[in-house]
């Protein structure tokens, strides 16, 4: 279990802290179902990595690997350098029945670390601030002609470029098409209906991408490229449609 919430969250949402603490108490008592309900109430007030992480732990204790992984991924977007979050993501990925054995490129890991220094929300705010300061510095340089403002403009341009790239990188990570299988077992079919041919069976915790939705079914793409239809409730989106860090 992670520690208490940041002080500013406590001040901003005392009711949220109450639900969070009650959820922790239920978790410690072994009532994981009630813990999830209380964490849901806390998340209805404020989104925080600590709540997603603890709710993910409660889901894991109930054997719901997909929902646990989804919550750990949501927590990661809000607190990307927390070692507990990263460790739990890696653990669930190894624990689930369907494993993706494709190796992650060391170069991709380096790029990920470079562009996820800040959380998804803070990265967007910092990018907007950098753009504003860059415009101000350029205006001062054009008005005054002083070289110092030119150097400041150059430095801010580099910062803005980095943050802009980080924003695009985060958008790829929190794509609303990203989803997980959230039932013990689901049948992958050739079409959106029970009458269509069975292609494969997928299991709880597998990460997929949602391509299309139709009549209670979702067309998903599995790691490796295989596509098929599953019942809508079999998969859960990790991130919401707005891509602004507001998660389900």
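^ Assign residues to that structure.
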């Amino acid at each position: 279990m992670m520690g208490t919430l940041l002080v500013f969250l406590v001040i901003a949402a005392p009711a949220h802290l109450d639900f969070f603490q009650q959820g922790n108490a239920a978790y410690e008592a072994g009532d994981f179902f009630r813990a999830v309900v209380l964490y849901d109430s806390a998340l209805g007030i404020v989104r925080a990595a600590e709540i997603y992480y603890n709710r993910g732990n409660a889901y894991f204790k109930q054997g719901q690997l997909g929902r646990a992984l989804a919550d750990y991924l949501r927590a990661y977007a809000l607190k990307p350098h927390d070692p507990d979050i990263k460790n739990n993501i890696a653990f669930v990925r190894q624990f689930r029945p369907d494993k993706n054995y494709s190796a992650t490129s060391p170069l991709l890991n380096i790029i990920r670390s470079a562009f996820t220094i800040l959380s998804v929300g803070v990265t967007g705010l910092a990018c907007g601030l950098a753009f504003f300061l860059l415009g101000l510095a350029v205006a001062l340089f054009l008005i005054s002609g002083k070289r110092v403002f030119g150097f400041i403009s150059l430095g801010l341009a580099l910062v803005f470029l980095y943050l802009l790239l980080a924003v695009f990188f985060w958008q790829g990570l929190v794509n609303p098409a990203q989803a997980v299988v959230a039932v013990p077992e689901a049948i992958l079919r050739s079409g959106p209906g029970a009458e269509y041919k069975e292609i494969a069976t997928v299991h709880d915790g597998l990460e997929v991408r949602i391509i299309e939705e139709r009549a209670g079914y979702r067309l998903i793409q599995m790691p490796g490229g295989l596509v098929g239809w599953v019942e809508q409730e079999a998969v859960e989106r990790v991130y919401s449609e707005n891509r602004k860090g507001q998660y389900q």
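The radius of gyration is 21 Å.
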